Amino acid sequence: MPASFTEIDDAILPPPEVRVLVVDDDARNLLAMRETLADLDATVILARSGEEALKRVLDQDFAAILMDVHMPGMDGYETAELIRNRRKSRHIPILFLTAINKDEMHIFRGYSAGAVDYMFKPVDPVILRSKVTVFVELYRKTEEVKRQAALRERLMAENYRVRAEKLEAEQALRRSEERQAMIARSLPILLYTAGPERGTPFRYVTENVEALFGFPAERFLTDGGFWESRLHPDDRERAAVQFEAMRQGGVSTVEYRWRAADGQYRTLLEKAMLLPGEDGRPPELCGTVLDVTDTRELQLQLAHVQKMETIGQLTGGIAHDFNNMLTVVIGSLERLARMAFDDPKAARRVEMALQASLRCSDLTRRLLAFARRQQLHPESVDIEALVRNMGELMERTLGPAITVEIDSAPSLCPALVDRTQAESALLNLVINARDAMPSGGTLTIATTMVEAEEGDAELSPGRYVRMTVSDTGCGMPPEVLARAFEPFFTTKEIGKGTGLGLSMIHGFVKQSGGQIRVESEPGRGTSFHLHLPCAPAAARKAKEPEDGVEAGPLPGKGEVVLVVDDDRDVRQVAVLTLQDLGYTVVEAENGPEALAVLAGEPRVDLLFTDVVMPGGMNGLELAQEAQRRHPALKALYASGYAHGVAGGLSGEGPGAEFLIKPYRDRDLARAVRKALGGGVADAFPELKRA
């Protein structure tokens, strides 16, 4: 049976226990009183003295107190006054019982002490029980009223708590729904449900559909074929197969291109599953559509960067090997030129071959520039002055149909770049601008200073000189612009371009610590922005010519030179050239063999070593070990590209002697004379530290 409301109330707040206190120093009277009151629905508590009665009153509540007046120690009057003076017990009715104090004075004193009745012994049990019963019932009614009031207050508090919790839960649910709606609107994700039949409109789409694709939600909810009608033609058949797989059940994923309201195709990744119908309802598709256009573009850019890096490594290696071969060719042709001095026809042919070889050397420099492995000689360069000094050359190159405008901002900081490479980069951009304006136009070269802040995705924080080269030519479409810096890519006719110009500029700028950006639009011209780092104050001082360095290739004076190169032909060219110049030459194929030669030779003045060599010891390591054993030994380095040791020489200071292959006889002669005038520790401070 269900519990009654009274039982529920009693469980929540049980009714209090009713007690009656009997105080008398005579044990017989106490027993008689207990027997008299035994039929009452109350607990009878007995006390033998006033002190014991007070102790009982301290921790218990009573419906009535029956107290003897005459007691040893503390009498009934005194005890009653103390009970009445206590706030928690002053409400308890007190009935005095006496056998001797029956005069009016004692009765008056009893009522004055707080008694509600004054009875004489022997007491009629019926009368006593009737009076006590009245007090017990009155107490019980009073306590019940209090209990009901407390119960109502407790129920009201509980009701308030429940309503507050309900209100808080409703507010939390509303906030959660608002957050979910806000997240759904902000994310590039469309949530939808649709019927399993093809060509039916969506049943539900999130509110962000218009922000994502430019069409209102009603368009998708009313037009069943709208979504499929805007699929890219090349993706329609493949997507249809995947859509059909979705409708067959399970989870399916499909990626396709979809034309948005702006006419641009967006790459979408859709994932959906078929949910079975419940309670006889038909099943429905539930899915998400994620716009991954930017992600796919970044992936393509990353793949392009990786391809460029791979091509750069390949071209750098090819250029290195090609430079070794050109060193042999150029050195041999220069020797033939001296031998064919008396034969003008043979001399002319040798000179033609030599010039062709030098042009090949220029091509390898372009390859190394693209691969960012060419040897740069950065110095403090006034870019504004460099542009103006090249003005006459640019005008001759461009012709009369093109107007050149130079716009320079005042107080430019000098740039820390290789002057020759900077001039070559500017000339390449000018020639490209000329080819983009076959009918004439305007070429604008502007220089200004900019400062990159923290958070720039492409430039490190610092000051840069920005050189902008703009033309009013034909411009580039997006597909050409995306490949502008790709090596060997060109839109020029066959024979009119190698496709290395822009890639060379890109490599030079990146290796210099800068950044190149391009803006172009068909029919509206092209602008290249080269950001070149400003030179620190220490690098802005003019570089003084070093004393003791001859202007021409002076011959040797019998000094002993150790030539180390793993390529036999390259080594032989160097050996023959140095011998012709009057040096005593010994040779070695690799580092360990060179150390053995040094140990057996009484005197070696100069170590001329290739940087990149097999055998576990490169040229720098060889020089370090050789100088440790022979502190007076000088050193000269050569390489097919500058980055010979794990990507390149780092930290080479002013005066470091480094020959780039292919080199000519006079370059070798000057470098040897200069190296003999300074130690390897002066040329490479990091070797001195080691």
Helices, strands, pairings?
Blueprint: H1 5-12, E1 19-23, H2 27-36, E2 43-47, H3 50-59, E3 64-68, H4 76-85, E4 94-98, H5 104-112, E5 115-120, H6 125-186, E6 189-194, E7 202-205, H7 209-213, H8 217-222, H9 226-229, H10 233-247, E8 251-259, E9 265-275, E10 284-291, H11 293-339, H12 344-370, E11 379-381, H13 383-389, H14 391-398, E12 402-408, E13 415-417, H15 419-436, E14 441-452, E15 462-471, H16 478-481, H17 501-511, E16 515-520, E17 526-533, E18 560-564, H18 568-580, E19 584-588, H19 591-600, E20 606-610, H20 619-629, E21 634-639, E22 658-660, H21 665-676, H22 680-683, H23 685-689
Parallel strand pairs: 1-2, 1-3, 3-4, 4-5, 12-14, 18-19, 18-20, 20-21, 21-22
Antiparallel strand pairs: 6-7, 6-10, 8-9, 9-10, 11-13, 14-15, 15-17, 16-17
Helix pairs in contact: 3-4, 11-12, 11-18, 12-17, 15-17, 19-20
Q: Can you walk me through this structure?
A:
By secondary structure, this protein is an alpha/beta fold. It is built from 23 helices and 22 strands. A five-stranded parallel beta sheet has the order 2-1-3-4-5, with helices on both faces. A five-stranded antiparallel beta sheet has the order 7-6-10-9-8, with helices on both faces. Strand 16 and strand 17 form a beta hairpin. Helix 11 packs antiparallel against helix 12 (344-370) and helix 15 packs antiparallel against helix 17. The longest helix is centred in the N-terminal third of the chain and has 62 residues, at 125-186. It is elongated. The two termini are 97 Å apart. Mean pLDDT is 78; it is low at 494-499, 542-552, 642-656 and 678-690. This is histidine kinase. The modification 4-aspartylphosphate is found at residues 68, 610. It holds the Pfam family PAS_3.
